[in-house]
Amino acid sequence: MTEAQNLRELNERLGIDIDPETLRLSLTHRSYAFENGGIPTNERLEFLGDSVLQLVATEWLFHNNPAMAEGRLAKMRSAVVNTRALAAVARQYGIGDYLLLGKGEELTGGRNKDSILADTVEAIIGACYISQGRQVAEDLVHRFVDPMLDDAVNLGAGMDYKTTLQEAAADLGLGVVTYDITSEGPDHARVFTALAQLGDTTWGSGEGTSKKNAELVAAEAAVKAIREKHPDWSRA
């Protein structure tokens, strides 16, 4: 598949129509730029996209939670506007397949690094803003993060799934929370798998590029499983 076809395919996946030059720039990691004569990178678009993302998430939380205090609003926003959450968005849309990476970054698993994926999501948002305007960019952000914003509203006071899992275990008498961690792959591209266990029961599993990320994914799966089995449980 040619580069032009790749860019059209990514536009279709995202449901947008960013012009090819700007979309290509949003995918250009600094390692690729360095190896190709110092061409522009996606970092300026990332800077712009981060601002658009922050604004859209803030507006959504502000208007949908009129009685919520500023401190809790800020915690909910940080639960969504963070590297792990944005990397999950990138994986959902297969953005890693389209990255322009240098040879060294390619060899060390750059297509699956949370930091690179998250930065690229922000750069794509910035590219959409430049190419298609504010409204289209805001619509894209809503597709990316609205489900996570809904989840953030439903999380416990700790504003992360590991804390919420601890609270659920204590409230429902499900036992002590532990994580069983395994890993596979070479050091530069190791994948960790975590099982979230409450007592002797496994409630969720998850994979990540670090132990911490794998535990967070497993905790999220466990919290969702507990909510399905105990729909009346909640934490203010």
UniProtKB/TrEMBL annotation:
Q: Where in the cell is it found?
A: Cytoplasm
Domain RNase III, which positions?
A: 7-133
Q: Which GO terms describe its cellular component?
A: cytoplasm
What processes does the entry annotate via GO biological process terms?
A: mRNA processing; regulation of gene expression; rRNA processing; tRNA processing
Q: Which PROSITE patterns match?
A: DS_RBD, RNASE_3_1, RNASE_3_2
Q: Which Gene Ontology molecular function entries are recorded, alphabetically?
A: double-stranded RNA binding; metal ion binding; ribonuclease III activity; rRNA binding
Cofactor(s) the protein needs: Mg(2+)
Tell me where on the tree of life, at the top rank, the source sits: Bacteria
Known InterPro entries for this protein? dsRBD_dom, RNase_III, RNase_III_dom, RNase_III_sf
Indicate yes or no for the key word rRNA-binding.
yes
Q: Where is the DRBM domain?
A: 160-228
Where does this chain mainly localize?
cytoplasm
Q: Which reaction does it catalyse?
A: Endonucleolytic cleavage to 5'-phosphomonoester
UniProt keywords (A-Z) are:
Cytoplasm, Endonuclease, Hydrolase, Magnesium, Metal-binding, mRNA processing, Nuclease, RNA-binding, rRNA processing, rRNA-binding, tRNA processing
Q: Where is the active site?
A: 50, 122
User: Which Enzyme Commission numbers does its entry carry?
Assistant: 3.1.26.3
Q: Which residues bind Mg(2+)?
A: 46, 119, 122
Family per record: Belongs to the ribonuclease III family.
Q: What is annotated about its quaternary structure and interactions?
A: Homodimer.
Function of the protein:
Digests double-stranded RNA. Involved in the processing of primary rRNA transcript to yield the immediate precursors to the large and small rRNAs (23S and 16S). Processes some mRNAs, and tRNAs when they are encoded in the rRNA operon. Processes pre-crRNA and tracrRNA of type II CRISPR loci if present in the organism.
The molecule here is called Ribonuclease 3
